[in-house]
Every structure is written in structure tokens, then in C-alpha cells.
Write a structure and sequence with these properties.
Helices cover 36% and strands 18% of the residues. By secondary structure, it is an alpha/beta fold. α1 packs parallel to α5 and α2 crosses α3.
Length: 174
């Protein structure tokens, strides 16, 4: 589908155990639509290899026209970060990013975006908070650590507010 290249497209990448229209994505997609953005969510279900997911996302992004904002959760955050090296997005929001985990080709992917923000839970049992602290420190990324677990279910209000603020900041540049 050809897109109006004057509009921002928000592209979501879900985590390993989720789907393209999970709770957080649906919540954030509503905010993006309120701001007259195009919304896309790539379906990675059935693909457990994070680097195969990177290839899928790169093929998807190659077809987009105009600026885009990437949002990834867990493995999806890894995927958008790796893809950002090829497709420099306007902004990225990384939720509980899967960094420094075995089985991932790039242990310390470099985020390439106009703005990158991370939200992570202190009590994450999947991706240790120390991994994310290290990642954010090494790349000078804004980090919001919440009293929450990996799914960030108790942090939805904070994530909504942060995403809305990031989106408004990006949109004021167009």
C-alpha cells in the first residue's frame, strides 16, 4: 500500500511470546492513530530466531516511504535496534530490550535513530536489568526503569505518556 510520505509511520515489532496486536502494541497504536500516523505491526509469530526476524523487518522497512518510528518489545526491541543500522528511523522506543542474551548474533547492537528511549522493569526475569543498564550506558540512551517485570504490565500508563511525548516531539519536526 503506498503511503503519504508526509505522514509518519509507526512500526511495531512484538516479542517472542506475543503477537502483532498484543496489549502494549494496541495501546500505543491508538495513540499513533490519534496523531494521524500510519500504523503497521509486523507479524513474527512462528519465527523464533531473532536474526531471521531482523531480515523480515528489513524487507518490510525497505517497502516503506517517508519517515518512520520503530517500537519494539523484548526480542522485537533487539530486532528494531539491529535494523536501525540500515534504516535510520526518526525515533525508537525499546521496551524490555533483549540485549546481551545468548543466541543473538549481535550482543551489543548499536541503535541508530534520531531519538532512542528504553523502558525496562527492575524485576525483569527474562532480560536482567543489568544488561539494559549496561546497554543504555554504552550508547548514552535515555532509560526509564519501572518497578515492574518483563511484560511491563504495571507500567502501561508511563509507557503511554512517554510514547505520546516522543511522538509529539517527532511530529513537531515535520
Amino acid at each position: 500500500m503506498p503511503l503519504d510520505d508526509a505522514k509518519l509511520t509507526v512500526v511495531f515489532a512484538h516479542g517472542k511470546e506475543s503477537g502483532p496486536w498484543g496489549t502494549k502494541i494496541t495501546l500505543l497504536a491508538g495513540i499513533a492513530k490519534e496523531h494521524d500516523c500510519h500504523v503497521e505491526s509486523v507479524d513474527f509469530r512462528g519465527v523464533s530466531d531473532p536474526d531471521v526476524r531482523v531480515s523480515i523487518l528489513k524487507a518490510f522497512l525497505a517497502k516503506l516511504q517517508g519517515p518512520f518510528f520503530l517500537v519494539g518489545s523484548s526480542m522485537g526491541a533487539y530486532v528494531v535496534t539491529v535494523a536501525s543500522a540500515t534504516f535510520f528511523p526518526t525515533a525508537m522506543l525499546l521496551l524490555a530490550p533483549a540485549v546481551y542474551l545468548s543466541g543473538y548474533a549481535e550482543q551489543n547492537p548499536t541503535p541508530f535513530a534520531g531519538q532512542t528511549v528504553v523502558v525496562h522493569g527492575w524485576h525483569d526475569q527474562v532480560v536482567p536489568v543489568d544488561n539494559v543498564l549496561r546497554f543504555c550506558r554504552e550508547h548514552s540512551i535515555e532509560l526509564h526503569v519501572q518497578p515492574d517485570g518483563h511484560q511491563l504490565l504495571g507500567s502501561q500508563l508511563q509507557i503511554k505518556l512517554l510514547f505520546r511525548e516522543m511522538l509529539q516531539h517527532v511530529l513537531c519536526r515535520f
